[in-house]
Design a protein that fits this description.
mainly beta; four-stranded antiparallel sheet
Length: 424
């Protein structure tokens, strides 16, 4: 009997093994902090970069960084008159299925009009995507069959931002969290299986949606969702959407707030470009049981546009600069002091870009196509490899780098490149 039970448990464990792989199942990876849990990767690249495993073309327009889960790669694109979700084989990039979400969205502003920016969120046998016009869809991972769909505009009174909806939905427990930015629904929680509304959160001042994606945090025994709206950073209770706190200083005057906030040790950091910069607040419980956000510092030295930031060992790494350009910067997270700034380097080795972390190395992708491997250091810029992306579209490389299962993925509009970065 024990032998049969052991065999049953072993079979069950093997069946579940893909869930424990080094996947990248959502925006900014497993924990939404742009940090991979992977080990055993190259610590330096050969001249010309790591070997290219495969390349595919014809994905369609867009800035959606891929999600990788259980042997599949998922992303979004505009193809002709449609906005679509696609699934590829992780082995060779072969297309497995493509599903239409809705009509292609005609954005009036030119930047980013080529296609969606949402990274699909994979949760078990389902994935969740948000179109440029605000259609939130739940699809089966196996074949792309639509399970349910809601409209942030029609169902929640949301207003499409100037550069369209760019959020990647957050799945937390039984809930899907997104940001319609409506007068009565700044954020909403939906049942992830049915799409039914669980709660609507009305933030004071009714801030509209910006372009960032929410995170879940645990503070003082309470689960919260933290989001960067067009007016500022807000925290709401996960249980019922109750408004808890707000911090507006990192928001720029145009509401172009794109980078995901960072949470660490009861502190939240958020940043935007266009003259705003980055601010750190400390959360505390007040006498009435509410939450207070007290500013620690605000710095103009981390005007992070949309490339994201990495917190590692007390250092904050990210690009400082907006439309004018910029460069990689390293700050002391607790004080905001600049530790080093590549903008001061006459060689301009690390111009403005997006960042991720895996196995003790920063993967930094510049907007102009160069891909850099850096060793994190509070003292100086340490480069351990670089290469130029082939088959450039000529548009900015805004899709963030993704690292999963020994591979580095770079999306450039209709092209997806897969590099082998596993140490041998």
């Amino acid at each position: 009997m024990r032998t049969k039970t052991f065999i049953h448990l072993l079979s069950w464990t093997v069946a579940l093994s893909p869930a424990f792989a080094d996947d990248w199942p959502q925006w900014q990876g497993p924990d939404r902090d742009a940090i991979s849990k992977e080990r055993g990767l190259l610590q330096a690249w050969p001249k010309g970069g790591p070997p290219l495993a495969w390349e595919i073309k014809g994905l369609g327009g867009g800035y959606s960084a891929p999600a990788i889960a259980a042997g599949r790669i998922f992303g979004m694109s505009t193809r002709g008159e449609d906005e679509v979700v696609w699934a590829l084989s992780e082995t060779d990039g072969k297309e497995l299925w493509v599903a239409r979400v809705g009509p292609a969205f005609r954005q009036s502003w030119p930047q980013g009009k080529e296609g969606p920016g949402c990274t699909p969120t994979v949760a078990g046998e389902r994935l969740y995507v948000l179109s440029m016009s605000g259609d939130l869809a739940c699809l089966q991972v196996t074949d792309g069959k639509r399970m349910w769909q809601r409209s942030l505009q029609k169902d929640f009174g949301g207003t499409v931002p100037n550069w369209s909806y760019r959020e990647s939905p957050l799945v937390d427990g039984n809930k899907v969290i997104c940001t319609p930015g409506g007068p009565e629904a700044t954020l909403v929680a939906l049942d992830k299986l049915t799409g039914d509304t669980l709660w609507k959160s009305q933030v004071p001042g009714s801030p509209r949606a910006a372009y960032a994606s929410a995170i879940a945090i645990d503070f003082n025994g309470q689960r919260q969702y933290v989001q960067f709206t067009h007016r500022g950073v807000v925290g709401v209770a996960a249980a019922d959407g109750k408004f808890l706190w707000q911090y507006n200083r990192p928001a720029n005057g145009m509401g172009i707030n794109c980078s995901t906030p960072i949470y660490h040790d009861a502190q939240v950091f958020a940043a935007s470009a266009y003259g705003a910069g980055g601010g750190l607040v400390k959360l505390s419980q007040d006498a009435n049981g509410g939450v207070t956000a007290q500013e620690v510092y605000l710095t103009k030295k981390m005007q992070n546009h949309h490339g994201g930031m990495i917190l590692l060992d007390g250092c904050l790494y990210g690009a400082n600069g907006g439309n004018e350009g910029g460069a990689l910067l390293c700050l002391d997270f607790q004080t905001g002091k600049v530790l080093w700034d590549e903008r001061d380097d006459p060689e301009h080795r690390a111009p403005k870009g997006s960042v991720a972390l895996a196995d003790g190395r920063l993967y930094y992708r510049t907007e102009k196509g160069a891909m850099l491997l850096l060793e994190p250091s509070p003292k100086e810029y340490l480069e351990r490899g670089r290469f130029e992306q082939p088959d450039r579209s000529g548009l900015p490389d805004w899709a963030h780098p993704v690292i999963a299962n020994g591979k580095l993925y770079l999306r450039d509009q209709g092209v997806l490149l897969c590099y082998d970065v596993k140490a041998r």
